[in-house]
Design a protein that fits this description.
alpha/beta; globular; binds phosphoenolpyruvate; binds magnesium ion; phosphoenolpyruvate--protein phosphotransferase
Length: about 325
């Protein structure tokens, strides 16, 4: 079956009625990135820098980081790469930086930690900018943002890092585009203000679901409650897409939902046209998109939005798949 999907990987992901969907990779390890990119991805939609940090015994130095980030950008040839600043805390521990909290998912994680440790944050930003060099390939993404002040502070650090490097190292160096993860629900209601500050957003549906439903994304006891197809989640995603369009803010989705066939159908129907997923989903999603029409999906979404549970939504989309086989 994988073979059947893989045969079409070279063809662009485009619906039967001509809507082009850009498919990107989620990555963290370098080993196979080059071949994964060559295999039909439009770029890297989420590079999780906490993964190389976890492979070290201490915080990697600026030059060590530059090397890793350069390799990522090279592996991507000239395609865009969205590099996320350190997202430790929550479910992502760093052995050499232990954090003990009662509610780690509501605690010190992502951008909160970076802003409390500017010496670490500035090193990471400097390393990214240097790796990006004079090309426009690199985009920087901030995780776990929960208010506008955090964005403003991060922008100030990015400016500082960029100005230092421009003056001391290379005056032609490019300032990367900046985006934030949309994964804390309150920000869904501040997209107008977000759009005035950043160049793009990326919906982290894993954490967004966890926080909208108040269900731990990793706790097996409540795993049946962790439902990305909960009608409330779907409405939030639809509203986010609409607001981003309204405020001219480019938006992608990089949570697991963007690599699941049912999720992709619903997201594309909402108007999302940039999806970032694990390498294992890429061929299948490309294959699927080439066999649906956007107008059919819009009708399906209208129906899905009248349903009352995630279970019903899944059944509806499965029936649609079966009717087409
Ligand atoms: C997300 O939260 O959806 C996401 C992509 O980030 P992570 O899974 O790394 O928390
Ligand atoms: Mg997340």
């Amino acid at each position: 079956l994988q073979n059947k999907y893989a045969q079409e990987l070279d063809l662009p992901a485009e619906t039967m009625d001509g809507k082009r969907i850009h498919l990107y990779l989620n990555a963290g390890l370098l080993s196979s990135l080059a071949s994964e990119i060559a295999n039909g991805a439009d770029g890297v939609g989420l590079y999780r820098t906490e993964i190389p940090f976890m492979l070290h015994q201490r915080f990697p130095s600026e030059s060590e980081q530059v090397k890793v980030y350069q390799q990522v950008l090279e592996a991507a040839s000239d395609r865009p790469v969205v590099m996320r600043t350190l997202d430790v805390g929550g479910d992502k521990p760093l052995s050499y930086f232990p954090i003990n909290e009662e509610n780690p998912f509501l605690g010190w994680r992502g951008i909160r930690l970076s802003l409390d440790h500017p010496e670490l944050f500035l090193v990471q930003l400097r390393a990214m900018i240097q790796a990006g060099d004079e090309k426009e390939q690199l985009h920087i993404l901030l995780p776990m943002v929960s208010n506008l002040e955090e964005i403003d502070q991060a922008i100030a650090y990015l400016e500082q890092a960029y100005n230092e490097l421009k003056n001391d190292v290379n005056k032609n160096i490019v300032k990367p585009k900046l985006g934030i993860m949309l994964e804390v629900p309150a920000l869904l209601y501040q997209l107008a203000e977000v759009a005035r500050r950043v160049d793009f957003v990326s919906v982290g549906s894993n954490d967004l679901t966890q926080y909208l439903l108040a269900v731990d994304r990793n706790n097996p006891r409540v795993s049946t409650l962790y439902d990305c197809y909960h009608p409330g989640i779907l409405r939030a995603l639809k509203r986010a897409r609409f607001d981003c369009w309204q405020y001219n803010l480019p938006v992608s989705v990089c949570g697991e939902l963007a690599g699941e066939p049912i999720g992709v159908i619903l997201l594309v129907a909402m108007g999302y046209d940039q999806l970032s997923m694990n390498q294992g989903s890429l061929a299948r999603i490309n294959y699927l998109l080439r066999r649906v029409s956007h107008s059919d999906l819009s009708e399906l979404l209208q129906m899905a939005l009248t349903l009352t549970s995630g279970q019903e939504v899944r059944e509806l989309v499965r029936e649609y798949f079966e009717s087409r086989e």
